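Fold Annotation — chain and its backbone

Encoding — discrete vocabulary of local shapes
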Amino acid sequence: MNSPGLRGAGLVVLQALRVATVITLLTSGAACWILVINVEKNKPYFIFECFTLFFVSVLCSLLVVSELAFAQFIKIYLRRMWPVLSDHHGLSWLGLGMIIIGCNILGMLNHDLKMASALSSLVLAAGILALIFGFLNIVCSFIWCDRKEGITSRDIRANGSLARSQREFTDYEPPSRSSSARNEKTRSKFVSMFWKKDKEEDYLNGQPEIAAPPYINHHGRDLEAQSDSPIIPGLKRPDTALHPMNTRMNSRSSRSSRYSEANMSRF
């Protein structure tokens, strides 16, 4: 796979296979809805058969979106939610999904469905094409890949001989790290929910939380003892800020008493 010519040929082959894959998936989705319309309604469990075909058509739509993921937000969504269908992985899971779709569609032809020959031919062609191109996607995924460098078939399909591993980009996040962070957030929410519930139960049961006793400052108590009057024990001294010496330093409007000094001119 180190040959630029081989990688350039892989670009052409994989792009052609991409177009054929999208057409096959669209045809398979249409075939599923044709089978839903023509399913035998007189059977007791026909509803489950319709749901099966509906889920297969949803799978076809998902695979089409993964093949036509040109927008950046679609690529980021696939990397987070469907990593095996993103540009960080090869085409093997896509081929496996197409094989499952083809087997399901061809299996429905085993029933005695009353529909036109043209519709029956369309359903048959959709099933056969899904099997063929699903197998080709798996084969090409193993041919055009380089596991030593981490290059997949999607990388070669996008860049050809200039292909690089998509895991080198900064927006790639390993699944283990993202899952561990997600589990940690879920665990913290779970614990906080029960913690709040316990607090509410204690409040409703009449058992409020009692805070710890305040810190007693013995140094402050000693200072209060020193502020007692030396003449009459137990009598508190007035606050030092109210002493006439300190009141003179303030403005005249802030004096505690107007008779603290003689109200007369010094001259």
